[in-house]
Amino acid sequence: MDNELETIQQIYNVVVEFIINYSFQILGAIIILLIGAKLASWLGRLVTGLCEKKNVDITLSRFLGNVVKILTLTFVIIIAIGKFGISIAPFIAALGAIAVGTSFASAGPVSNYGAGLVIILSRPFVIGDTITINSVSGLVEEIHLSTTILTTEDDERITIPNKHIIGEILFNSFNNRIVESSVGISYHDDPEKAIEVIRKALSGLDDICSEPSPQIGIAAFGESSIDLGMRYWVPTKKYFQTLYRGNLAVHKALQEAQITIPYPQRDVHISKSEA
Questions:
Q1: Burial degree of 184 (CB within 10 A; 0-12, 13-18, 19+)
Q2: Beta-strand relationship, 226-235 and 215-221
Q3: Residues 181, 243: contact at Cβ < 8 Å?
Q4: Are 76 and 33 in contact (CB under 8 A)?
Q5: Contact yes or no for 226/214 (Cβ under 8 A)
Q6: DSSP state, 262?
Q7: Are residues 36 and 71 in the same domain?
Q8: Rounded to 5°, angle at Cα 56 from 54 and 57
Q9: Do 133 and 62 share a domain, yes or no?
Q10: Integer Cα distance of 254 and 198 in angstroms
Q11: Is residue 108 one of the residues assigned to a domain?
Q12: What is the DSSP annotation of 148-177?
């Protein structure tokens, strides 16, 4: 019991001595940290706001603002540590060793940050674009250093690690997405008339983009029909909605124009063998 009390007394004496000897340094360091934190936040917001006023992409603006904020905080922390007369060289060496060790232990997560930096600086896409990567398609809602978040027409959120974006084939259709559809007409009908009917039907839908204009033409000659292909651009958030409305409008227009949509037919000939 006496040993425990003696140990507690020694710890108490060390703490009191430290506070007495470094009280002004501690107070100064706390003040520097508080002022520095406010200054870093203010400078970060200032840089972000200036970039947005210059019409810089919002992702790049936020990135530059965060870089300024982190650099300012780092500088402030170095000044605060210096108030105690402590050399920062050992801390820098230790941080470097930790960073190297972490990079080997977590190559995957670190590569995500590296890929995110490449995306932010090279800007292959920006927030609001529609991209397709490895059959995954959606509207870019957020771009972070480690991940990119897409949203679909059903308000699903798709989170893609950035390392799976860099080095892959990426399709960027910006704000829109292309619809590719087809319909078959009878060989007895005039394909030019059918194409014009379809064009008028699609032009009546507000969500179909006028530029680039819809493409309609003969896609193939089937066994029972002339297949007409349709390609047009629609807002990503209204892809399936517009696709279904477009198909219905085309079907109604062809019926009103008395153009036949055939179904597959096969002629079967049965021959009787003579006994």
A1: buried
A2: antiparallel
A3: yes
A4: yes
A5: no
A6: -
A7: yes
A8: 155
A9: no
A10: 7
A11: no
A12: EEEE-TT--EEEEEGGGTTTS-EEEEETEE
Same domain flag for 134 and 158 = yes
> How far apart, in whole angstroms, are the C-alpha atoms of residue 135 and residue 233?
18
Which alpha helices (H) appear in 83-129, and where do they start and end? 89-105, 107-122
Q: How many CB atoms lie within 10 A of CB 199?
A: 17
**Confidence label for 47 from pLDDT (cuts 50, 70 and 90):** confident
Rounded CA Rg of the chain: 33
- Pick the last residue of a domain from 59, 86, 113: 86
Say yes or no to pLDDT of 106 above 60.
Answer: no
User: Residue 108 contacts by C-beta under 8 Å, 6 or more apart in sequence?
Assistant: 161, 163
d(CA 7, CA 210): 83
Tell me if 119 sits within 8 A of 162, measured CB to CB.
yes
114 domain residue, yes or no: no
- Rounded to two decimals, the pTM is 0.57
Residue 264 lies in a domain: no
Task: Tell me the residue type at 177.
Answer: R
Q: What's the pLDDT score for residue 83?
A: 64
Residue 268 φ/ψ region, left for φ over 0, alpha for ψ in the -120 to 50 degree band, beta for the rest = beta
Q: Please give the share of the chain, as a percent, with pLDDT higher than 70.
A: 79
**What's the total number of domains in the chain?**
3
> Does 118 fall in a domain?
no
Distance of alpha carbon 76 from alpha carbon 71, whole angstroms = 9
Task: Extract the tokens encoding 18.
Answer: 């430290």
- Boundary (domain end) residue, out of 174, 206, 241: 174
Q: Is 143 helix (H, G, I), strand (E, B) or coil?
A: strand
Segments forming the whole domain that contains residue 199:
177-256
